[in-house]
Every structure is written in structure tokens, then in C-alpha cells.
């Protein structure tokens, strides 16, 4: 500024004191609104993360339950297969013996 309060070329006069305070209050209000929206968005995001974690935990539990059930079924089926094999082996031996006896009988018939 020049002497005695004169304006230099290109300078704009400062707004009156009341106008500056009003503009600052308006900016504070906008800033407060933005902060409130940001906090609300963060809270919503945190809730979504909590819900997502809960759903993931439930899904993992279901998968674990299904896997355990399948493993039990597989174990039961293996036991059944083992039992069937134990029954089949003696039958196969009997079939071999019958085949031998049949061959002997055929030989005797020929004789």
C-alpha cells in the first residue's frame, strides 16, 4: 500500500470485517459438513468390513462342516469296501476250488 492508505494498482480492497467473518463461518460449516460425511462414510465402510468378516467366517465354518461330513462319509465307504473285500476273498478261493474239482470230474468222466 501506498502512504495514507492509498491502494496500489492491482490491489483489491480487503473485505469488511463482518464479511470476512461470515465467509469464514460459511467455510467452517462446509468443512464441518465434509468432515461429518467423511466420518459417516468411514463408519459405513467399517460396518461393511465387519459384516464381510462375519460372512467369511460363517462361510469358512460351513465349508469346514461340509468337509468333515464328506471325510466321515469317505471313511464309512472305505470300511464298507474293506468288509466287502473280506467277504469276496473266501468266495474267490471257493470258486478256484470248485474250478479244480470240476476239472477233476471232467478228467474222470473222460477216463
TrEMBL record:
Underlying gene: Ice1_0
Top-level division of the source organism's lineage: Eukaryota
PANTHER family: LITTLE ELONGATION COMPLEX SUBUNIT 1 (PTHR11852:SF4), PLATELET-ACTIVATING FACTOR ACETYLHYDROLASE (PTHR11852)
Originating organism: Eubucco bourcierii (red-headed barbet)
Protein's recorded name: ICE1 protein
Amino acid at each position: 500500500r501506498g502512504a495514507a492508505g492509498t491502494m496500489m494498482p492491482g490491489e483489491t480492497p480487503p473485505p469488511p470485517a463482518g464479511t470476512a467473518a461470515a465467509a469464514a463461518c460459511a467455510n467452517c460449516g462446509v468443512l464441518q459438513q465434509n468432515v461429518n460425511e467423511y466420518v459417516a462414510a468411514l463408519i459405513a465402510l467399517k460396518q461393511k468390513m465387519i459384516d464381510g468378516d462375519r460372512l467369511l467366517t460363517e462361510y469358512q465354518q460351513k465349508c469346514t462342516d461340509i468337509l468333515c461330513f464328506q471325510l466321515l462319509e469317505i471313511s464309512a465307504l472305505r470300511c464298507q469296501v474293506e468288509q466287502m473285500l473280506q467277504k469276496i476273498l473266501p468266495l474267490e478261493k471257493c470258486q478256484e476250488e470248485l474250478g479244480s474239482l470240476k476239472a477233476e470230474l471232467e478228467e474222470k468222466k473222460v477216463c
